Amino acid sequence: MNNFKQCLTLDQSHISSCVRLANLLANEGENLRAAKYFKHALKLEPLSIAANFGMGKLIQTFSSEKQTAIEYF
Fold first, then answer.
1. Residue 25 has what pLDDT?
2. Residues 40 and 69: beta-carbon distance below 8 Å
3. With contact defined as beta carbons under 8 Å apart, do 41 and 35 qualify?
4. How far apart are the C-alpha atoms of 69 and 73, rounded to whole Å?
């Protein structure tokens, strides 16, 4: 996790680090922080399959508004 954070410190536009850090945070139950990094990745690359799928999975798993996840899938 620290390596991905360090990458983002050096280059905030490193989408791969954003997505991987978000996935790690989601796996640890840090949903709000994970969503922040998924959103950042989607700002960098709105059509990113990994970022959209990750955000959809996060919403589907942890939100009461399951329908919102569909737009990301």
1. 93
2. no
3. no
4. 7
Residue 6: burial class (beta carbons within 10 Å; 0-12, 13-18, 19+): exposed
Location of structure tokens 């959809």: 56
Q: Is the four-CA dihedral 54, 57, 61, 67 of positive or negative sign?
A: positive
> Which pTM does this prediction carry?
0.86
At 9-57, the pLDDT tens digits run: 777 888 888 999 999 999 999 999 999 999 999 999 999 999 999 999 9
**Contact status, residue 19 vs residue 25, Cβ threshold 8 Å:** no
Task: Please state, in angstroms and rounded to a whole number, the distance separating the CA atoms of residues 9 and 71.
Answer: 30
Please name each of the domains of the chain with its CATH number. 2-71 (1.25.40.10)
